[in-house]
Amino acid sequence: MFAGIDVASERHVLARLDSAGKAIGRPIAFGEDQDGYTRLAEALGPPPVLVAMEATGHYWKNLFAVLTAAGHDVALLNPFTARRFQEASLERTKTDAIDAEGLARLAFEKRPVPTQLHDEAAESLRELVRHRDRLRQDFDDRVRQLHRLVDLGFPEFTRYVRSLDSMLATALIAEHPTAQAFARANPRRLAKLRYDGCHFVGPELAEQLVAAAKHSVGQHHGPVYALQARHICQDLDLWRRRLTEIDRDIEGLLDAHEVGKLLLSIDGLGPHSVARIIAAVGDPARFRSAGAFAAYVGVVPSLRQSGKHSARIRAPISPMGNARLRRALWMPVLGAVRRNPWLRAFYQRLRAAGKPAKLALIAAMRKLLNAVYSVARNRKPFVTLTDTARAA
């Protein structure tokens, strides 16, 4: 039997087909609760049943766990794939029941391979990485809000303390939120302010800030501005500690992960980059080739050629692929082409051949992904030809 489930937050819809592709009854709606799951189990019958459903947000996770535990084969589909299959049938109406029937039809005709989820460590890394991204976004939002308050109350402050996301900046602003507060401060007492547990502000910076505050052009010093600044500084201190804690947890999980530990041997990949790769794909060796892995990330050209229409000289990269992982690898590649000897040589060779900088960087990312795939497939640390020659 084949089945399709249209996944939603509270109410799912199940459609079934027999071995000949004929519908079994009408689509069945069931809830996201114990009664609904019992109804689902009764409707599916004994395993194995090939069930197709879209990976919609997080709503599929409980269903997937229950169905696989019961012995059914579950194929998680990219919503884009399911939509294109529905469009090919020229279906003009869209309802939950029709979507479920379309997924069941896709399972019958295409026989997708059942999905194997990542191991527990990879799933933990995925959750930690996404939680860290949310915290980092909140942290950066608070820094921008603090910039606004500083611009209104003490715009000269950033001449002496460049980065408002630093512990020095938050310690100073929490104590003296506006220029008026700084102007009233005692320079000697301000110099003894400890901002990271071991370092002090110092007399030079304290005197500069007090002097600048007395002639500041900032005009907003009311209690509401001081209250906002203090609250933001408290938030930044809290999120900074949480980010540090998450970073330690990520490094601990990587240290216990076979592939993650090996990927750290590649110059240019740090714990955050490796964690994002493991979180996105689990084991890169599960792909049939390095090219398939690069295609999943989206570092492949999007060639368009048909009839008399000639392809562009330089085809852009495909918009398909894992954009989240592609963005996460961009900055590591920028650093790697400066500090990584073998990747820097590859990048410089492309630039010397006249390739544009961005094209050379994309090629360097593809080269780095090839190294990731090789390390994961061979289960050995990364070794360059230079290292091999030196060892010989």
What does this structure look like?
This protein is of the alpha/beta class. The protein is built from 18 helices and 5 strands. A 5-stranded mixed β-sheet has the order 3-2-1-4-5. Strand 4 (50-54), helix 2 (60-69) and strand 5 (73-77) form a beta-alpha-beta unit.
Distance between the termini: 60 Å
* Whole-angstrom Rg: 28 Å
Q: Give the H and E element order.
A: EEEHEHEHHHHHHHHHHHHHHHH
In CATH terms, what is the architecture of the largest domain? Answer: Orthogonal Bundle
The total domain count is 3
Beta-sheet strand percentage? 5-15%
Could you describe the largest sheet, including whether it forms a barrel? 5 strands, mixed
Reported by name, the CATH topology of the largest domain is Helix Hairpins
Instruction: Compute the number of strand runs.
Output: 5
Question: Within the largest sheet, what's the order of strands?
Answer: 3-2-1-4-5
Task: Note poorly predicted spans.
Answer: 388-392
**Helical segment tally?**
18
Domain Transposase IS116/IS110/IS902 C-terminal: 261-348
Organism: Tepidamorphus gemmatus
Protein name: Transposase
GO molecular function: DNA binding; transposase activity
